[in-house]
């Protein structure tokens, strides 16, 4: 079994502890100290040895599994992936793909071929030429004012959210947004309801802040609010993805949206609404965002341009209640927005000049087509796809150990993920998560669906 006693974890390091662990493990694999097939200590043992929470080790392992460095083999444990020694990126790169191209089924990406890069380059060039010497000064800590205004306008029309630009805080990505919320509103020991299964990459932000992570199960109406009320009534926060639950894709029902808001109002708690891919809905009428129902002013709303434009921007935003603007502004003095000014200005122009609307319209059509391609291709291979009204990923049900199936698929270069890896404590049917956004033809969908079948059966 691989040893963990050479790893060093420091609470005073600038990078979070789970990343310190992940980096050192990657290094050890690259250096050949950990060879393919070595078993890692269980997360419990590793956590005890390093003096960190078990969740911290789980997060490090989870990240390396997602990147292809490690693989989980059910009860047997976590192992260095057989092909990891040549670098995680190589694990899933098929020889026909250009360097750096998305791997088949890779999640978290919009359609890279659909973004108007020439227009973007022109707009950025124009912005650069328009900048004055005053643009060389430190930008506003809570984000560029024209972008905050453009987001407030966009939210009013598209999401019925009534907010002023000073309520908008631009951040360098969603995790940075969550860090700002935690620094401004949370203290160690505060409880937070998290969807289980749910978006795993944000958990470390809350864990590192010493918060208590409360898993709340999800059913076909979204987070089970009754469960949260019954088990963790005094939590200070609830983080939800109401538009399309991540990763199951279900919408939080209207009744539960009201129930959540009533709890937050009565308990003086905060609802964090992660509206990350609400732009993509293909049929049915969308439900109102919780923020648009927020009479009691208990909702912190989070959005991102990662899916609606592209992830390399790393630009997200928060809308906070008017009464919290001062507190959030204070905290941006030491957690300032680090998104580059030129990027923020160009996004603002893109929104104000109508390109954003046009782009979203085009992408909705593109995704509804690509989704159908993949759904049909998977069904032809006998897979059981779970129907969903929106979002940019698909889930299919599988029987048996989804982690083991996913490990086989990843060995074949397919970047699918196991639903079990997104769970905290919940038990439930196995699933395989995948994206369709970069499948550029039905023929390609058929080919990868066939590859998936060949890899796992
Ligand atoms: C559930 C969820 N929330 C938020 C985000 C956005 O994160 P970021 O803005 O850091 O790309 C993602 C990205 O995949 C996500 O899946």
From TrEMBL:
Gene3D superfamilies: Type I PLP-dependent aspartate aminotransferase-like (Major domain), Winged helix-like DNA-binding domain superfamily/Winged helix DNA-binding domain. SMART domains: HTH_GNTR. It is an enzyme of class 2 (transferase). Residues 82-102 are annotated as: Disordered. Residues 82-99 have a biased composition (Polar residues). The keyword Transcription regulation applies. Residues 15-83 form the HTH gntR-type domain. InterPro entries: Aminotransferase_I/II_large, HTH_trans_reg/aminotransferase, PyrdxlP-dep_Trfase, PyrdxlP-dep_Trfase_major, Tscrpt_reg_HTH_GntR, WH-like_DNA-bd_sf, WH_DNA-bd_sf. GO terms for molecular function: L-aspartate:2-oxoglutarate aminotransferase activity. Keywords: Aminotransferase, DNA-binding, Pyridoxal phosphate, Transcription, Transcription regulation, Transferase. It comes from the Bacteria. The keyword Nucleus does not apply. Its EC number is 2.6.1.1. In the C-terminal section; belongs to the class-I pyridoxal-phosphate-dependent aminotransferase family. This is GntR family transcriptional regulator/aspartate aminotransferase.
